Amino acid sequence: MDLDHSNYGLSVSKEEENLIEEEVNPLPRAVLRLNNHILLDGEWRFAIDTDDSGLREGWYLGHDYEHVAQWPGSVEDHMAEAKGGPRWQDQVVVWYEREFNLPERDEPQACSMLQITFGACGYETRVWLNGHLLSTIEGEEVHYGEYTSFSYELPEEYLHLGNRLTVRIADTMDAETPRGKQESHVYKRGGIWYQTYTGATRSVWLEMVERNRLRSRVGVVSVVEDQLVRFNLTMRIHDPGAYTIRLQVFDREPLTKEPLVTSDFPMRLEAGQTYQRVVIELPGARLWSPDAPNLYRLVAQLIDSEGYAAQIEANFGLRKIESRGRYVYLNNKPTYLDGILYQPGTATYEEMRRHMYAMKKLGCNLVRVHIAGIDPRIYNLADELGLLLWVEVPSPHSSTPRSRENHRAELLRMVDLIETHPSVVCWSLYNEDWGAQDIATNPETRKYIVDTYHYMQIRYPQFLVIDNDGWHHISYEGRLKSDLLTAHLYTPDLDRWRELLDRLVAGEMEGTAAFPLVVGDPFFYRKQVPLVVSEWGGFGFPDYGGPLDSEARTERIRSFKQELRRRPIAGDVYTQATNIEDERNGLMNAQTGELWVPEGLLASHKEKELEAPAPKIG
């Protein structure tokens, strides 16, 4: 195993002379640090803990590992390679271990520390350093979740010149954990339910960080009318005292050496983790949209009383999204959502990158990332390309108090790390009742969803929120608890398609989608909420019917799309971008991104822009 990595001399971030030099981020996170880092990807020792005896026997103190595995990778692949047999069907416990040398430091220990970050790993992760159990920055000895990053600060007293890192990962087919479309005890693999893909799924890296610093997460809320940008920052403090947050905003195009604006915010900070909103004015700022994805560069520093600055950087854009009457408004302009459903599955970052470019070529301005966690660099790419993103919480598969606790925890972990991006405009809490199967009959399930919807509205006003996509939206006192009224409509027959759309826009809440569109209190649709057909097509997938060859599929899509645009509908999402497992309804090659249909096929080709009615006075 190679312990002499070329990147093993680490230092904390330093302010550089040319602040506008482009940085390439090789790590699966959205915010950039100028620190050096050590990727711990590659060959790890690997063992399957068949009877879950590793904790009792103290494997973290030393164990004879039988196998090796490549990190990142899936538990399923690692088990198959190790055993040459079938993958797990109920629960799994596996262990990984490797060594790393203590890096040289350019900074004194008094102001810096080593930190290790897992890009994503789960569902249940424990980590030991030289036999000592670590706790995450949030204080967790066991980290739950498998879609977002988490970090450990490495105590000096645990570190040696040569170090041993041990990781235990446990997962089950438990239907109460957020799983998305992976199989569980409730939904078995086949059709739209996929093989499990869990474990060491993203990179892990070591870096030097400041003891007192801004964490790698920045929330951005812009209100375009007042030209103000609201930044949500997270501070990690070990040494209480007087600090200053300094924000500098630079223009990315054209690149500028001098900041457009600089603002300081002095405050006293106590030890621990602190959240702070700060606001700056950006007069004359260009807004972000799919047609003009204007981005700015934020340099944020936490400066201590001695003048030492800990720095992070992020790109951001100013935009405003609203659900108002019949339309979705982007930057106060009604905007039709030309969407496509995207299920990346086990695609690599490079493959997902090709998919994003291909979806833009199809004429899409919206990508619905379906019920999955993805590499955070994809959000950066969508910011740059000008693609609106609709993201979703990977759902549990059963509706219980525990499944709702797990769902909320996963949602909060995801939104914490995604609120930087102007491209992310919409969140689904649930999809087609998965994890909320009793939504029509259980007031507790509806209350949880309504409360979460209200929380998201207040805490994250920069997003639209969907309660339960496809059908069974919730009405409370006649008010829809969803920013969009969405329907999933599947038929290969054009006449049936016209009939379903006509009934939908006429306000028929039953008989259009597979289940009633609204549950709870009576709801009367009078065009007060935008209608979105958030799944349709599926042509080529046997369960949905429709043409299999590309030419016939192209003509069917054109005809169906024309019918959508002839009606007062705010957007649509074609299903789907790529083939995945049994679902053979993609429009592009999943490896290369090469389109199988003409470019621009999913663009509206509307004769004129949407026109919102002028407000009446008096």
Biggest sheet, in brief?
8 strands, parallel
Shape designation: globular
Q: Report the helical percentage.
A: 10-25%
CATH class of the largest domain: Alpha Beta
Number of strands: 34
Question: Low-confidence runs (pLDDT<50, min 5 residues)?
Answer: 1-8, 13-23, 612-618
Q: C-alpha Rg, in Å?
A: 25 Å
CATH topology of the largest domain: TIM Barrel
Brief descriptors of the model:
disordered N terminus, Jelly Rolls, seven-stranded antiparallel β-sheet, alpha/beta, 8 helices, 16% helix, globular, 32% strand, Immunoglobulin-like, eight-stranded parallel β-sheet, single chain, TIM Barrel, 3 domains, 618 residues
Q: How would you describe this structure to a colleague?
A:
One of its GO terms (biological process) is carbohydrate metabolic process. This is Glycoside hydrolase family 2. Keywords: Glycosidase, Hydrolase. With 618 residues, this protein is of the alpha/beta class. The chain has 3 domains: 32-210, Sandwich (Jelly Rolls), CATH 2.60.120.260; 212-317, Immunoglobulins (Immunoglobulin-like, Sandwich), CATH 2.60.40.10; 321-588, Glycosidases (TIM Barrel, Alpha-Beta Barrel). 16% of the residues lie in helices and 32% in strands. Strands 28-27-26-25-24-34-33-31 form an 8-stranded parallel β-sheet. Strands 3, 4, 5, 8, 9, 10 and 12 form a 7-stranded antiparallel β-sheet that branches. A 4-stranded antiparallel β-sheet has the order 2-13-7-11, with no helix packed on it. Helix 3 (349-361) runs parallel beside helix 4 and helix 7 (494-505) runs parallel beside helix 8 (550-565). The termini are far apart. Mean pLDDT is 91; it is low at 1-8, 13-23 and 612-618.
